[in-house]
Design goal:
The complex is a heterodimer of chains A (734) and B (57). By secondary structure, chain A is α+β, with helices and mostly antiparallel strands. Helix content of chain A is 51%, strand content 17%. In chain A, strand 3 and strand 4 form a beta hairpin. In chain A, helix 4 runs parallel beside helix 7 and helix 18 (561-570) runs parallel beside helix 23 (664-699). Residues 1-8 of chain A have low confidence and may be disordered. Chain B has two helices and no strands. Classes of the chains: A alpha+beta (734), B mainly alpha (57). Chain A binds chain B through residues 36, 39-40, 43-44, 57-61, 106, 109-110, 113-114, 117, 120-121, 124-125, 138, 141, 144, 148, 152, and chain B through 1, 4, 8, 11-12, 15-16, 18-19, 22-23, 26, 31-36, 39-40, 42-43, 45, 57.
Chain lengths: 734, 57
């Protein structure tokens, strides 16, 4: 797939880590390595290479770590060896965000282990006390057991409870209440009261409740974090496998292929026909046509010459360009798009999520109930110490264990189900917003249509002609030729000479064959006929001896676009198209898909304005788009989705990314999210129901630590099992 | 009940050993690839190779 000419060394030095002692290491993202057999064969093959010290595969994140003695092996050899097994591999540096996710996951797992250990051991002591209370335990033994419990529980809570304490402090500092505030309060009060009870030789201590609460909630947090980390890792691999590189002039004469991470502003890069431009910059020499559809949505090519600005993501069609880099990889971005994006993102963070809303309702209610219980018992003539104990029991019993798990458990299961249907969620909370969407706004180019153009009139050609044209097209760098290669499935290139801007020429069985512009092949007449039938298509002619053929290459709808649109309509969603492309092209796509509402020739600002207008009329918009021009609209929409072929800025703005050529993941995202949201609400109701039973018991003063433990674990398990239903029907994935 | 004086610390010690083992496995990165680790257990690659340099494997 690489455009590197033979013998042209690729420079991976930015990816290589020096481990000392002459050993260097490299992480590679490997595509399609999913089975145990693949793992073993990759490790074996790479491990056998001369100079390789070790090769270790991580099957979960689909990566390969290679260490080799410097000078004895090169990354290119490793990549070639892996490619020989049928896997595409590309060097990789973990993004900071992903490294952070991994560290957080590890931290939570450590807390979880500690909490599990403590919960088990305290329960051992608690069960003894409970059974002893029913028979013949002496107060001294009970005190001893309570002290031992305290010895385990207090350090455990201080250590493993940190995620909740931190989050609660953050929320309180911002003068807000989240679920972690009542959790923290519950833990602290349970521990504090238990210590006082133990000092007073009391019968009941709640050390086990406090630690069990921490344990159950950590399970939810850990699963959530693990899911998020996995999604990040896959997204990181996809980004790496795009293998964005540029050909940089290292001297006046020499050009070297380097990853875009190694390009700085001011560098000169060479862009040949058929290559995607990977930097923002100014054309220093050369003239060409470029395809800006990823930036503006416009599918007609733009002619550019010296001093023109070009942007990352555009495709160079016909001429060789030398570009001076203005922004390097991190800064590739139109200023206008950037400022719109920032504004829209700030808008969105103000939304309140289901779990937070529940917390905001729940916290005051529970604390008021506890207070009322205390006052009630004091008025009824009970000593204030005992009344306080009952009030605190109320707080412990209502402990938001089930509430705390209700939403994240569903999020984890649903995110996993979406993952299997090729949708990667950027954040779990997006599920709720997907479920709420009532309007879907599609971009056209690259979203409803496939990212690469397809041959529209393939049925006109015999298989022999198509195969021969395909073999000739393999010799061409022209993007339109790629469509012919794909349609023909050709794999054996012919030796051909490329005439820049015109086409390729070769001989086959004594006949001259040509592929290129209609004028180059002498096919103007045939081209005019085809152009009449396909007014939107770009034309490419093929001459085989005396016969000429004309291919009409144009954007094609995704294979299941029609069914997906019908499915979305069946779910009751209104559908619109907003495109930057010409009105005629948009109207045609809308007609084919049965979409009544569409607007063409929209600028990024127009798109945002339209989405804001929809939002003002009370609509919740799901925006699906891939272009840089869609990024602000994606961020402004209630919820957003983009195909994995989108530019990375657009992907970052979207709530979720979908993979593959099919459009059905959009449908899956909406329907699974609706199911997930229904389950979240159901889970919250279950939690309320449990409280409705347990709280009166606690208010009446009948709640013992045993009741608390049973209620807590029982409700958590029920809520978690219910969440498993968010998986949907198995086997429905692509 | 005096037996508790030995038994309880013993129970805690054993539990603590388990915890220490868990922390150790976490430190040595054994939790980083749960999927792969499961398959490695049944892979035969670590058996002694009978024929050296068997390229056809």
């Amino acid at each position: 797939m690489s455009a590197a000419a033979p013998g042209q060394a690729r420079d991976f030095s930015t990816f290589i880590r020096d481990e000392g002692d002459g050993v260097a290491s490299l992480e590679l993202a490997v595509e399609g390595m999913r089975c145990a057999g693949c793992m073993a064969s990759v490790e074996r093959t790479v491990g056998k290479l001369d100079g390789v010290v070790s090769a270790r595969v991580n099957l979960t994140s689909q990566r390969l770590n290679v260490r080799w003695r410097e000078g004895a092996a090169t990354p290119d050899q490793v990549i070639a060896a892996v490619a020989g097994l049928g896997f595409r591999a590309y060097p990789f540096v973990s993004r900071q965000a992903e490294t952070k996710e991994a560290q957080e996951e590890k931290r939570l797992l450590r807390y979880l282990g500690v909490a599990a250990f403590a919960a088990m051991n305290i329960m051992l002591l608690s069960v003894s006390v409970w059974s002893g209370n029913a028979s013949d335990i002496t107060p001294e033994t009970r005190d001893f057991f309570h002290w031992l419990s305290a010895l385990i529980a207090l350090p455990t809570a201080a250590y493993a409870g940190q995620p909740f304490f931190e989050s609660a402090t953050r929320a309180l500092r911002a003068r807000q209440v989240n679920m972690d505030v009542p959790i923290t309060l519950g833990i602290l009060l349970a521990l504090g009261m238990s210590v006082v009870e133990t000092l007073n030789h009391g019968e009941h201590a709640y050390f086990d409740s406090a630690v069990m609460l921490i344990f159950f909630l950590l399970v939810g947090r850990y699963l959530d974090q693990a899911m998020r980390h996995k999604t990040r890792a896959v997204a990181g691999n996809l980004a790496a496998l795009k293998a964005e590189t540029a050909f940089k002039y290292v001297s006046d004469k020499e050009v070297r292929e380097v990853p875009i991470a190694a390009i700085a502003a001011g560098d000169l890069v060479l862009v040949r026909p058929g290559e995607r431009i990977s930097v923002d910059g100014k054309v220093v020499s050369g003239r060409s046509e470029i395809d800006q559809s990823l930036i503006t949505g416009e599918t007609a090519y733009a002619a550019i010459g010296t001093d023109a600005m070009v942007y990352a993501g555009t495709l160079n069609i016909s001429g060789t360009l030398t570009i001076q880099v203005v922004h390097a990889a991190s800064g590739t971005l139109l200023d206008e798009v950037n400022s719109l994006l920032e504004k829209a993102t700030a808008e969105r963070s103000r939304q309140v999520l289901l779990a937070d809303r529940a917390a905001q309702l729940y916290a005051p209610l529970v604390h008021a109930t506890a207070l009322a219980t205390f006052i009630g018992w004091v008025l009824a003539g009970l000593a204030w110490q005992q009344a306080l104990i009952i009030a605190i029991t109320v707080l412990i019993i209502t402990c938001p264990c089930a509430l705390g798990l209700a939403v994240p458990a569903v999020q984890v299961v649903a995110a996993g189900a979406l993952f299997r249907r090729s949708v990667l969620l950027n954040q779990g909370s997006a599920l709720e917003r997907f479920a709420e969407a009532d309007t879907v706004v599609f971009d056209k180019t690259g979203t409803l249509t496939l990212p690469l153009p397809q041959i529209a009139n393939a049925a006109d050609f015999g298989p022999g002609d198509l195969a021969l044209a395909g073999r000739l097209a393999l010799a061409s760098r022209h993007p339109l030729a790629q469509a012919i290669v794909e349609a023909s499935g050709a794999a054996m290139p012919l030796t051909a000479t490329e005439e820049p801007g015109l086409g390729v020429r070769s001989t086959f069985e004594g006949r001259e064959i040509l592929l290129g512009r209609p004028s180059f092949c002498g096919a103007e007449e045939a081209a005019a006929l085809v152009a009449e039938r396909y007014p939107e298509a770009s034309l490419m002619a093929f001459r085989d001896g005396g016969r000429v053929h004309v291919f009409a290459v144009q954007q094609a709808l995704r294979p299941d676009a029609v069914e997906t649109i019908q499915g979305l309509k069946a779910l009751g969603l209104a559908i619109e198209i907003l495109s930057g492309d010409r009105p005629a092209a948009v109207a045609e796509a809308a007609r084919d898909l049965g979409i009544e509402r569409f607007q063409a020739a929209m600028t990024p600002a127009d798109k945002i304005r339209h989405i804001e207008a929809l939002a003002e009329s009370g609509r919740k918009v799901l925006m699906v788009g891939d272009g840089l021009n869609d990024a602000p609209a994606l961020a402004a929409a209630h919820v957003s989705l983009s195909p994995v072929t989108a530019v990375h800025l657009t992907q970052a703005a979207a709530d979720a990314v979908f993979l593959g050529a099919r459009l059905s993941p959009v449908l899956a995202a909406v329907s699974l999210s609706r199911r997930a949201r229904a389950l979240m609400v159901q889970n919250l109701r279950l939690a309320v129901l449990y409280n409705a039973i347990a709280v009166p018991l606690a208010i009446a003063g009948y709640a013992t630590p045993l009741v608390a433990a049973l209620a807590m674990s029982g409700s958590s398990v029920i809520v978690t099992l219910n969440a498993l239903r968010a998986q949907g029907k198995p086997g429905a994935g692509p | 009940m005096n037996v508790l004086v030995y038994l309880l610390p013993l129970a805690l010690l054993l539990g603590g050993l388990g915890l220490a083992g868990f922390v150790w496995s976490l430190r040595t990165r054994q939790f980083e690839d749960l999927q792969g680790a499961g398959w490695r257990a049944i892979s035969d690659d670590d058996l002694p190779v009978l024929k050296q340099k068997d390229k056809s494997s």
